[in-house]
Amino acid sequence: MKIILDSPINKYYVQTLGMIFFPGARFGEHEEEDGTDTCISVKTEEVDGGIKAYATVSVEDKSESAEYYAEFTADRTNERVLKLAIGGAVLTAASALLGYRPAWGMMIGVRPSKVASEMLDAGYSKTKVKRILNTDYLVIPKKAALATNIAVTEKSIVGEPSPKDCSVYISIPFCPSRCTYCSFVSYTSKRLLSLIPEYLEKLKKDIRSNFEVIRRLGLRVRTVYIGGGTPTILDARQLRDLLSLICEETDVSALDEFTLEAGRPDTITYEKFAIAKEYGVTRVSVNPQSLCDEVLCGVGRNHTIEQFYKAYEDARRAEIRTVNVDLIAGLPGDNFKIFSKTVDDIITLSPENITVHTFCIKKSAEVLRQNSRIYSARGGDAGKCVDYSQIKTQQAGYIPYYMYRQKNTVGNYENVGFSRPGHEGLYNIYMMEEIHSIFAAGAGAVGKLVDNTGNCCNKREIERLFHQKYPYEYLIENKNEAFAEAAVRFYTEHGML
């Protein structure tokens, strides 16, 4: 795709707008010379009281142009006004050309509720926030309401963040098999799975190091999250060893939440959940993604519906406080009839959490090599599926409590977590909304140091700490000593000790 700019805007912003209408689009270093037949041209000028943008979107021999004006206001930065003007112009032109109006309008960020939250912080009423999202950001009313309501819910859950709060993330980046849509750093070959014992020894050292720094900084651990990959790929002895270490390093009874992301039903046993319960785990995920064996087989998810039901029953027998079930709308081979039945059947089970993702196509996913035309701007049945899940869960007494979005989701739709009151996945909120620091251990894990004191011009200053992506790299290089030094420096420099 060509991007031609006569504007001070960052080209990446316009590229991301283009991906709403042309998911999977590629951008080279010299887009103007790559011979593509798709082009977005943008020009802006400052006029009295605001910025006017002019956009032309072309595909082959067809094109549409539009202009859009965004006004300077006291609560908008110049960059925000520039983005509103360009977003409105590109959206209007592309919608006219393609006959498709995206539900989220020009909102391209991971956290659409963040914009709503900022306006609520500025003293705007819920009604006004919804109206601004609809009129200024061109978000359709039901999505504007969803973003606003989730922002309100998150605020009530988080309260006043303390600089002394933190969470811990532990990565187990291994799976029994790789789903065709997977984009996580997870490893399935026999050779790589053989690394698990050595990986766990290195991981335990880093866990001890993280908790040592946490104690040194005088922090309170609010949540611990063991994710992956599939953490329950560990056998019962390995899982007990890992959980017992965590119990040695922190008082798990004082945690607000302790999550084991079990995930794949074909790795779950009652014994593993009983061990999790014994060591203080309060939340687990048992993720079918779909209750249709044909759909599961089509995406390389090597478990059956029966295995899911058994795993779910094992979680109930073990008396884990909160059980989450993940579903994915828009999977290849799925449709509204299949997905709506899946939603109905899951609601009948009455898990405390239901998380509904929209199928997302990553460039490294196997499914893209199988079908290069799988990208879909409109999303087929996905929109109906997402709407149905939101209506039915709320009718059943669940509340939407957190949300995020990804690039290249079919239809450009969202991922939403629903919860019974009092069972919200707290780590999800703390991590996604960057409420406090996350100390991470393991391959592919990313730690975040967060200054939430309000001293940084009323913004959270964040420093990210990246572990090695691959397990074999993680085993070779030790970064935790550097991470510990970075944490102490960050908290000292920001006056958080």
What does this entry show, briefly?
Helix content is 40%, strand content 21%. It has 17 helices and 15 strands.
Flag low-confidence runs: 367-372
**Helical proportion, percent range:** 25-40%
Distance between the termini: 49 Å
Number of strands: 15
What does the oligomeric state look like here? single chain
The rounded Rg comes to 23 Å
Give structural attributes.
497 residues; alpha/beta; nine-stranded mixed β-sheet; 40% helix
Secondary structure elements and pairings:
Blueprint: E1 2-6, H1 11-21, E2 38-47, E3 50-59, E4 62-71, H2 78-98, H3 112-121, H4 126-135, H5 141-158, E5 165-172, H6 190-193, H7 196-216, E6 220-228, H8 236-249, E7 257-263, H9 270-278, E8 283-286, H10 293-298, H11 305-317, E9 322-329, H12 336-349, E10 353-358, H13 366-370, H14 382-395, E11 399-404, E12 415-419, H15 426-432, E13 437-441, E14 446-451, E15 461-466, H16 471-476, H17 480-493
Parallel strand pairs: 1-2, 5-6, 5-13, 6-7, 7-8, 8-9, 9-10
Antiparallel strand pairs: 2-3, 3-4, 10-12, 11-12, 14-15
Helix pairs in contact: 1-2, 3-5, 4-5, 7-8, 7-17, 8-9, 9-11, 12-14
Q: Explain this structure to me?
A:
The chain has 497 residues and is α/β, with parallel strands linked by helices. The protein contains 17 helices and 15 strands. The strands form 3 sheets. Strands 11-12-10-9-8-7-6-5-13 form a 9-stranded mixed sheet, sandwiched between helices. Strands 1-2-3-4 form a 4-stranded mixed sheet. Strands 14-15 form a two-stranded antiparallel ribbon. It is globular and about 65 Å long. Residues 367-372 have low confidence and may be disordered.
